[in-house]
Amino acid sequence: MLLSTMRASRHGVRWAMLGVALVALAAAQPMPLAAQSNTISGTVSDSKTGRPLAEAIVRAGTGPTVRTNAAGRFTLANLSGTTAEVSVTRIGYQPHTETVNVGATDARILLTETVLKLDEVVVTGSAAETQKRSLGNAVGQLDLAATQLVAPSARIQEALSVAVPGLQIQRASGQVGTGAATRIRGVGSLSLSSEPIVFIDGVRADNRSGSTSIGFWGEDKPSRINDIDPNDIESIQVLKGPSASTLYGTEASNGVIQIITKRGAAGRPTWTTEFRAGANWLMSPEKVYEGIWYRDENTNEVKYFNIIENDKAVVGRSLFSTGTPLGGTMSVSGGSDAIRYFFSGSYDRDEGVVDYNWQNKFNGVSNLSYSAGETFKADLNIGFTRSKTRTASATQPVTTYVLWACPSSICQAGSGQAPNEAGRGYLDGTTFEAFEELEGYDELDRSRVGLTLNHRPISWFNHRLVLGGDFTANPSSVYFPRGSSASFGLPQGYKAVRNDRSSFLTFDYSVNGTASIGSRLVSQTSGGVQYYQRRIEQFGSTGEGFPIRGVNTVSGGGIRGATENPDFNFENKTLGVYFQQQLSYNNRFFITGAVRGDDNSAFGTNFDFVVYPKVSASWVISEEPFFASSSFLSTLKLRAAWGKAGQQPNVFAAVQTYGPSVGAGGTPTVTPLNVGNPDLKPEVTREIEAGIDASLFNDRMSLELTYYNKVTTDGILQAPISPSSGFPGSQFINVGQFSNKGVEIALDGSVLNGQDLKLNLRGSLALNTNKIDDLGQDAPLVSNAQLGTYHVNGLPIGGQFWKKPVSAEFGPVVDGNPTVINVMCEGGTDLGVGDGSTVPCATAPNLFYGQSIPKWLSSLSADVSWKRFRLVGVAEFQGGHWINDGNLSASHTFFLNSKAAVEQTDPIMVAYIRGPLANQTFAPGMMKGGFGKLRNLSLTYEMPNSLPRLFGATRGSLTLTGANLATLWLEQKGTYGARTVDPEVRRNTGNLHLTYNQESWPQYTRFLATVRLSF
Amino acid sequence: MNRFIDRSGGGTRRLMAVLGAAAALMGTAGCSGILDADLPGRIPTELLDDPTVAATLATSVVADFECAYSNYVASVGIMSDQFLGASGNANAKDWGTKNIVENNAPNATAGCAQNFGAYTPLQTARFQSEDIAGRLGAWTDQEAGTALAPLIARTKVLGAYAYLILGEGYCAMRFDRANTILTPAQVLAIAETKFSEAITAAGALSGATGAELLNLARVGRARTRLNLKNNSGAAADAALVTAGFEFFATRSADIGTRNNDAFVVLTEQGHGSVAPEFRNFTVGGTADPRVVVRFGPDVNLSPNAFDGVTPLYVVTNKNETRAAPMRVASAIEAQLIRAEALGGQQAVDIVNARRTALSLPPYTGGTDDAAIRTLILDERNREFFAEGGQRTNDLLRHGIQWKIGNDQIGRPYGPASCLPLPIGERVEAGG
Fold first, then answer.
1. Please, what is the Cα angle at A399 between A397 and A400, to 5 degrees?
2. ipTM of the predicted assembly exceeds 0.95
3. Rounded mean pLDDT of chain A?
């Protein structure tokens, strides 16, 4: 497997070299002559971004049409007269006509985007070219190539976070190199991944969030979708649920993200360069980590201690530093009508908010297209990513030692080190300097290749073949030098290495036939077969106990071990076929029906294949003759869709297995590993959605409104297996039914559209509620008992349950400690809802707090352009959910370093510490998790042509970007007077929202200056 | 690498038949093995139905029991009064302060790779012994290519020990996902039956293996009977144990699941520290060699335990390395069982015989029940110090409360005495 991955990497290099050769050939081709006196030459650009528009169709009067090249350039020849009426059309833009002088060599024609792009082609899984007007479902779209010009994001997930209503990016950590979880329309599964599947140029890609890299301790993990450079992407399309993703079958119930990389356009080579530089820092760290409380050992006085302020006073600096990200991209595109190319390479150095957290990353893309007229087209897409990250968490990070600081010898838990002593009040006296010598590394060697062949032998028939693979090698390591005080129980030194390899292979063949039935009815028939293979491998080794400081190899350890975790050594295969029939009437009314059948290597032996049907309808009613078009309602499309998709269980879930283990003297033994479930079948999600797409006020505003109801049956639950079975771990079982319902609204409007001043506002709101409809049994199912999460009929998935204290009184002081009496809690049904009564807490039920994912997501963005300046601001809000801040719980009841825990003047707090609530471990950290943040504020200056010409360039721009500049709103700041570090920090796995700030890093603030030049 | 997932007879063919045209187009018709998948590192249950792996299966029972025993000794050791909980780690602290409630995750699910929590490993060991004894019993020596009787006897006796510990240490118990929740006495009754079966199996053997297993089973049944207050039965079994007998769970340093967990958590990582009252055991002013306790820096360890506050005191005459074997049963234990069961002067004689062997002054106190109880508890505490389950069992069966109030840094002790049945078992059983 290693060999094959390496081979793929080398192949990538060879293809890249071939690409360079083709560029040279293309560049050597004779180019059109310079404009002559009976010609008009110029550029077609986007009116907002100034971005040159390729593939725009330009004509003078009724003359022949020409297409703009990658630089937006066109030349109209053989003109007569002194002026010509030049008309320009392009999908997604309003048609434009203006008078241009014949002989002009630099005509600048600006096109304005249509707010509702019904004729835009979207990816649906079939070989047919599908226009948005024919879809019965909503499709999220992000024109990333345009967005990056005015509000650049460093990672794809950052760009996605506010772009698509209903899509939530759950940012787990701000550490450089880590990623987020992606959720579309709520909770996709009880226990399986809720990540949407990802395709890059039609090829299945590694979509894992929370990779198994050992370089990142705990739950701070990379997300593979972020490996790709956003600057290499043309657009992203999001199919949100089963009603849209049926054709993708098993694995698609969480939605589908289609990433389309940039392609070349005919014309001379267009070179684009971009340079980026800036700063990353944590704003007001002494407020983010607000400090701890303790009793002075001499005076018994309650005191406050802030370790960051103390460090500044004692050693002149804090653990936080300012990172300086730096990067650049160079690309070239162009070609002829037959061969087009796009090559890009980029390098980025990113640095986190501690000086040992950084990432070096190279990205490359080589996209080649070959067209033989209208009958045949081949696209070869090759990309690679190489990166090396030094993590901020080779072990439990320094944040742990900050949060549990203790400047006294009488802290309730944790060591005492006076502020001015060597330990400076850090937990165990382990100061931040000790963490600088720990090494956690994560490396990535990822290559992807895809070949797409489109053939249209006859006008009514076309077929498509996609072959490709995505290959990742992800070596990672941690190293603790001998004698390190931060090595978490391994003072003799420790080295661990792990190699995680994955391959995703795609075979996708589709056919499509189109036939006209009479003058108004068109039939489109599609079918296809797909085969996907996913293989994951992981092995590692450890060495512990080095003879002397400086030894840093596994083999240098006195105790060595090797591991191949069976959970990360498996393969999974899916074979599916589909058939789809669409009828359209007058290109205004569309009805589509489809069915897909899948078999998967992970289905239980007692289960057959699965069938997913779909049906949808779309009606562009505003194009009907009877529809009175008005200035208020310019365009209206009605749509509805119903469909099913599924998700297969983990590949080994169905089989009862034992695992190899070791007995006395190293003898090989076996031990129960997985109880298995031969009846296991995929969970199937059916979804109905209905909505409208409309343009309002003379096409100045668009409205997208969608209601959806997703119902998942045979939901797969990873239920903790009762150890009394003899098997450890968990068992995947099909349980009853759960549902997600919601509404998505997006409004996008041009508020001002003057010659110089333009203002665009966009707002979105996505509502989601989920609940367990039927577990198939009355008794609740344990999700995570220690975190108080259970699946209960009629309540949200993974609901959070704890006793709810109402009142308490102080009792006598015993051994110097306050006690409590009459501790009362709300009554009700255990693992149900409260009824308002009060009962003694000792016998009180555990009651429902709330759902763990947001009930609502919202974004607001403003886009102001004035002459050559453009200002874009994006804010994100979410709320309606409860989070469990594990650190607040520990602060109150374990480390006892919150003010409430030290003073113990609140009897309820005392009840948590030593009263009848003492076993409610995580309850004092329950809080409402809503927040609002200013995600992006970018100012772009489009340079006048004279300025880039100084560098030999034709265009230039400068963008200043600030990310995560401010927290605008917190639904709840903390609990019992202690403030959460960041409600957004979360464990990046599963559907639970447990915040462990000690193990993670908050989102940092970024400033970036970007200069772009085109040649 | 085996192919474990074979779907050639499943839906693939039918799916292909239904959509034959598309499949034929792609030449995939007849690709009946196209969805076969590899699962390296996993052994399907069917492969255990092979008589030639009989010895491996029996060794597996030993390995699972040894792992479970190590986890149990470490967990209840730090929970007992012998050690102060002295950790800054929340999980370890919960064990050290007896805050083990029914939703405690390590208590319920921790495996051999973890240090605290033994419920799952003990259930696995119990299941393995019964399942594999059943497999072994279905084969002949000729099929297996080895003598099966010793393997069966060893499997049975270790399984009986798993039942014994589950009956001693847990407040309630459940087996095989049944809807019935058992009391400790019911579990111990099962253990007694299992030990009887083991005694029969071991008694049929000859040679050293047979003698070792027979002694082990007799100590186990004597301990079980003592728990069940069948003193005469306990004394009878104990009397038959050969002098000098000792049986250890092997441990090694090479892999985490084989480590001596008591050393790892109590010494190496310092999550606990020997309680002050047990740091200087003497008998009549003579240092008791059965419990040797040292201050951390005296043995190249930190002066403070994991929490950085509590002085670290460690036991150095047992659990002294990751590879130190852990005693499961011994003739000394048998004699102390006899002493407790017989009481009076017979108990004193047994104790004094042991003290003489250790060059310690003899016991000269009273022989009434209370005095003998105190004597035996004290002797057992010394003999089995840091052997976890023995001390916890003594506290439980004599109804002695321990770790009440706040710990040495003011943290309140929790309510646990016996370990709770995990909440998942209770809920699933409908209880």
1. 80
2. no
3. 88
Angstroms from A159 CA to nearest CA on chain B? 37
Min CA distance, A785 vs chain B (Å)? Answer: 5
If you write DSSP's letter for every residue of A941-986 in order, what string do you get?
A: EE--THHHHTTT-SEEEEEEEEEEEEEEEES--EETTEEPS-TT--
Mean pLDDT of A300-309: 92
A555 at interface of B, judged by CB pairs closer than 8 A:
no
Distance CA B398, CA B391 (A): 11
- Element (H or E) spanning A28, and its range? helix A2-28
Is residue A22 predicted with pLDDT exceeding 80? no
Give the pLDDT confidence score for residue A605 in this predicted structure. 67
Contact call for A599 and B15, based on CB within 8 A: yes
Q: Mean pLDDT throughout A757-777? A: 92
CA–CA min distance A509, chain B (Å): 8
Put simply, whether B254 touches A (Cβ < 8 Å) is: yes
Query: Which pLDDT score, from 0 to 100, does residue A430 have?
Result: 86
Preferred mutation among A427, A722, A884 to probe B, highest tally of B CBs within 10 A: A722
- Which among A489, A560, A785 is the nearest to B423, CB-wise? A785
- Tens digit of each residue's pLDDT (9 = 90 or more) over B311-348: 999 999 999 999 999 999 999 999 999 999 999 999 99
**Does the CB of A179 have a partner CB in chain B at under 8 Å?**
no
Test B11 with A528 for CB contact under 8 angstroms: no
Contact, A280 vs A254, CB < 8 A? no
pLDDT band at A989 (very low <50, low <70, confident <90, very high): low
DSSP annotation string for A463-526: EEEEEEEEEEEEEEEEEE-TT-TTSSS-TT-EEEEEEEEEEEEEEEEEEEEEEEETTTEEEEEE
CA separation for the pair A563, A542 (Å, rounded)? 8
Of the candidates B197, B113, B121, the one whose C-alpha atom is nearest the C-alpha of residue B155 is B197
Q: Is the dihedral of CA A199, A202, A204, A206 positive or negative?
A: negative
Is B10 in Cβ contact with A608 (below 8 Å)?
yes
Are the Cβ atoms of A605 and B12 closer than 8 angstroms?
no
* CB-closest option in A412, A726, A890 to B123: A726
Q: pLDDT tens for residues A870-903?
A: 999 999 999 999 988 988 998 998 888 899 999 9
**A260 forms bridges with which residues in the sheet?**
A235
Mean of pLDDT values over B226-252: 97
Contact list in B for residue A404 (CB cut-off 8 A) is 88
Task: Answer whether residue A4 shows pLDDT above 50.
Answer: no
List the single range of A180-194, A417-431, A548-562, A896-910 with lowest mean pLDDT.
Answer: A417-431
In chain A, which residues have their Cβ closer than 8 Å to the Cβ of B107? none
Facing A559 at nearest CB: one of B42, B64, B253:
B253
Please state the rounded mean pLDDT for residues B19-28: 45
Q: φ and ψ at A997, to 5 degrees?
A: -65, -25
Cross-strand partners of A727? none
